[in-house]
Design brief:
With 878 residues, the chain is α+β, with helices and mostly antiparallel strands. The chain has 27 helices and 36 strands.
């Protein structure tokens, strides 16, 4: 778009906003009736117009519609004023007007619409985005399907019914970090908790029920995180497990774990005026702290001082929680004129990290004992030393809401019916056998079947693509499809697959084939949603000559793309075309744009997603690109060799037991080597940028306490440093002292007969796992034990999985989990459950899975209940 057209569209937006601002007609229906709030929104909207660039026309032309109302225009202005950059860049005004009209339609149609306060509706019904998902028209689709189902229901019952509908469509499965759109999640029928909650919030908002995604950024008592849903019903916020319906609101498997959290929060567009604490506020969004809804809390205040003891204003304070072998910031603040920053958190341990410039300081705080801490910025990078911390999580509570037996039984029957509906749909997915007849010169029938099976609900797209390309001898079809993630295969658009194809020509392409596969072939660069860019006309506009070099693209990007990390606050990557049109992006989207442009001009490029480094192929080798230095050059790199000398079958895993981080801008940034073959076996050597580093290790016991070790050291340029992963040991429970005792001669039902605990014990001990296969925590345990199958079978213990009859879902296929040699027992009459509860004194009926390790004489050597990552490895230590 030329500059005159851009100015013209922005002027039209200014005129429209000015008209609305001055409107005093009694007949005009305002979206925001509070004049002060409305004026603030319109001022923020006007400021946002300045950054639209070539996105002005696609976003502003919607105001030309003759039938658009004042209410709709103001709602659009609210969205434009506060939406993240990704949404300004990648979606048009027609899409947002549809979202506005569907939200207003739902409020008008359903009886509860009239009782929703204006601010609640604005933040939690109107807004189309839940987190960092790809957007679609799910609101329209879900409204049409749910409307008949909710007729005549109260708001409370409607919220429950929507969750039953969601469970009918989607169940839990772990997956990668990219969040699928709601319709893509429905198409594949499975999703991780972030996708389930995004889908469920979208469904609730589609029918005018205010909803928000609740997120504990990290658990305190175990590794990992979790997302669930809060719904506003009859004047109060309630929680529910997304796609995991319970008989009542305020129930869920996470009800007990949530009492041990240190933070639960949610993001919302704009300024939030509710009663909850806002832990982070920008011009665009608010982060709301909902932790007091779940557990006992205290407000802690950190006072930051310099080396001279005087308060430091403007210092960054991070409230860090140990999880996944790093200290993760669950909240971030900036000190005021008194050098203070505060947050409300749970009753556990945190590591407080403060910095200003390159000076920093840190110290542990036990919130059970203290609510204030003075922290000096008295450290600087460069010193070699080791720190030891013991991190204890909150104790939590086991008081949870329960439903009547009648309601619980009815809910269980409904869930089984919903499982059968979903499984009937899943049965239509393709299998490996469906690859027959789809082989070609660059793809065997077996390989075709492999991709069809992975495509699941997207099998029609993948089948058609293979069918239409299998005879193309020049297209490396297997390598092309293999460059996609499993999730890509499940939700990629067919047109994108076609337009992103690339053929390798060894006579003209100035690089080897393996470089082509790594740096040219794939339509994926990082964690972005796949889009049209490889042959995009917009990239062709960058240069008017053909001999384009990586440094040309780097220079153009540096000069033309404004970096605005805060503006893309949901961290949803902007498409390369969106970056080009908006001329504004966060650093990560900028890097994706750069790599896409390089590939367009036949320059191999990739992002190392472990450390965020960009590489391009020049002069026969991969060269790192530094935007900070404004050039493509050989950077200063060193090497680190990491080994482990411990005993036992289980070796430490990256993120599970250790991480590596580099000092940048006053804090350490952790590298992401999850599932990376470079760290698969000890010892291993990594080439990393020279600098100041931290090796973090941790060992967590069954109660959630962590023995943490931080080692700080330098990696000089051109040098190699050797380090060892050291896990601090807990004193294991010796034989004779235990978590309780169960009579070894107690007879319990096994396959229609009776067996004693003593007779069921294996070579050393008996492992009894009480599970609820319908819930996420059990699925995590089963996956862990499957991954450690060889280690369990080498150990030789007898393993029993016990399922209460009311939790034995028809779609639970025990053998499909590929578990170590074990036995499944249906606990008819709860004899197993009652016996173990009596023996331990722990009532785990509402907190599955519960895992016991017993010795031959009935001593219970290990006990774990509820959601805990790493339980399988802890079992192996016994």
């Amino acid at each position: 778009m030329n500059i005159l057209n851009k100015i013209n569209w922005i002027q039209k937006g200014l005129v429209a906003a000015t008209f609305l601002l001055l409107t005093t007609s009694v007949s005009a229906q305002h979206f925001i009736t509070d004049a002060a709030v409305r004026q603030q929104v319109q001022q923020d909207y006007l400021r946002r117009l300045d950054i639209l660039n070539d996105r002005a026309e696609p976003l502003m032309r919607i105001f030309e519609n003759e039938d658009i109302t004042t209410e709709e225009s103001e709602a659009l202005q609210f969205l434009y004023a506060y939406m993240p950059l990704s949404d300004l860049a990648d979606y048009d005004g027609e899409f947002y007007l549809m979202q506005v009209r569907m939200a207003l339609r739902a409020r008008e149609h359903f009886p509860w619409g009239k009782q929703i306060p204006e601010d609640i509706f604005r933040h939690y019904v109107l807004v189309y985005r839940v987190n960092n998902e790809n957007l679609d028209n799910a609101r329209e689709v879900f409204y049409q399907e749910l409307c008949p189902r909710l007729e005549g229901l109260s708001m409370y019952d409607a919220a429950l019914e929507v969750n039953h509908w969601c469970h009918e469509k989607v169940a839990y499965r772990a997956s990668d970090a990219r969040t699928s759109s709601p319709l893509a999640t429905v198409r594949t029928a499975l999703g991780r908790c972030g996708e389930e909650s995004t889908f469920t919030v979208t469904a609730l908002r589609a029918v005018g029920i205010p909803a928000r995604q609740c997120y504990t950024p990290r658990w305190a008592h175990t590794d990992d995180n979790h997302a669930w849903v809060e719904v506003w019903v009859d004047g109060k916020w309630h929680f529910l497990g997304a796609c995991e319906p319970d008989p009542e609101l305020d129930m869920g498997w996470f009800a007990i774990p949530s009492t041990r959290t240190m933070m639960v929060h949610s993001n919302c567009f704009g300024k939030y005026y509710g009663n909850e604490e806002v832990t982070h506020q920008t011009d665009l969004f608010s982060r709301v702290n909902m932790l007091p809804n779940y557990t006992e809390t205290r407000k802690i205040t950190i006072r930051v001082v310099g080396r001279d003891g005087k308060p430091v204003e403007g210092a960054t304070v991070r409230f860090k929680l140990y999880n996944y072998a790093e200290y993760y910031p669950i909240a971030t603040g900036t000190t005021d004129a008194n050098g203070e920053a505060s947050v409300t958190t749970g009753l556990g341990d945190l590591l407080i990290w403060a910095h200003k410039g390159d000076e920093y300081g840190y110290e542990k705080i036990d919130v059970r004992k203290a609510t204030t801490l003075t922290l000096a910025l008295d450290r600087a990078a460069g010193k070699d030393y080791t720190e030891l911390f013991t991190i204890v999580p909150p104790a939590g509570s086991k008081e949870v809401k329960t439903a009547s037996p009648e309601k619980a039984a009815l809910n269980a029957r409904r869930m089984q019916q919903e499982d059968s509906i979903r499984n009937a749909y899943i049965s239509t997915f393709k299998t490996e056998k469906d690859g027959k007849g789809l082989g070609g010169p660059n793809l065997t029938e077996e390989q075709a079947g492999y991709f069809l099976k992975k495509s699941e609900g997207n099998h029609e797209v993948i089948t058609a693509f293979i069918q239409n390309n299998k005879d193309n001898e020049k297209l490396p079809l297997y390598d092309y499809l293999n460059s996609l993630s499993d999730k890509d295969l499940r939700d990629v658009d067919g047109d994108i697959l076609y337009t992103q194809r690339r053929i390798y020509d060894p006579s003209t392409d100035p690089y080897p084939y393996d470089v082509f596969v790594k740096g040219i072939l794939s339509p994926r660069i990082s964690n972005e949603g796949l889009s049209f860019w490889k042959y995009g006309l917009f990239i062709g506009e960058l240069f008017d000559h053909n001999n384009v070099k990586a440094k040309d693209i780097q220079q153009w990007t540096q000069e033309n793309i404004t970096i605005d990390d805060a503006g893309n606050y949901f961290n949803c990557p902007i498409s390369p075309e969106g970056v080009y049109q908006l001329r504004r992006a966060d650093r990560h989207s900028r890097d994706i744009f750069f790599a896409a442009c390089c590939r367009h001009y036949n320059i191999p490029a990739y992002l190392d997603n472990a450390n965020g480094q960009i590489f391009v192929w020049e002069k026969g080798s991969w060269m790192p690109v530094s935007f900070s230095d404004n050039e493509v050059k050989k950077m200063d790199f060193g090497r680190i060799t990491i080994d482990y000398q411990g005993n036992g079958d289980t070796k430490p895993g990256y993120w599970t037991h250790y991480t590596l981080a580099r000092f940048e801008d006053g804090d350490f940034v952790t590298f992401d080597y999850e599932d990376d073959p470079r760290v698969a076996q000890f010892p291993f050597t990594l080439e990393v940028p020279a600098g100041y580093y931290m090796l973090s290790t941790g060992n967590r016991n069954s109660e959630g306490t962590v023995l943490s070790r931080l080692e700080f050291f330098n990696i000089p340029a051109g040098k190699e440093v050797k380090k060892t992963v050291i896990l601090r040991d807990f004193n294991l429970v010796p034989e004779g002292s235990s978590y309780g005792h169960i009579n070894p001669d107690l007879m319990l039902p096994v396959d229609g007969a009776e067996g004693s605990i003593r007779s069921l014990s294996g070579v050393k001990q008996l492992i009894v796992c009480f599970i609820d296969p319908t819930r996420e925590p059990t699925k995590h345990l089963l996956k862990e034990m499957s991954q450690l199958k060889r280690e369990f079978e080498r150990q030789g213990d007898n393993i029993l999985f016990v399922v209460p009859s009311d939790k034995l879902a028809p779609d639970f296929h025990f053998e499909a989990w590929d578990l170590p040699h074990s036995q499944l027992i249906e606990d008819i009459g709860n004899r197993w459950t009652d016996s173990f509860i009596e023996a331990t004194g722990h009532n785990f009926r509402n907190n599955f899975p519960a895992v016991f390790v017993t010795g031959g004489e009935g001593n219970i050597l290990f006990f774990s209940e509820g959601y805990r990552i790493g339980t399988a490895q802890q079992i192996l230590k016994q």
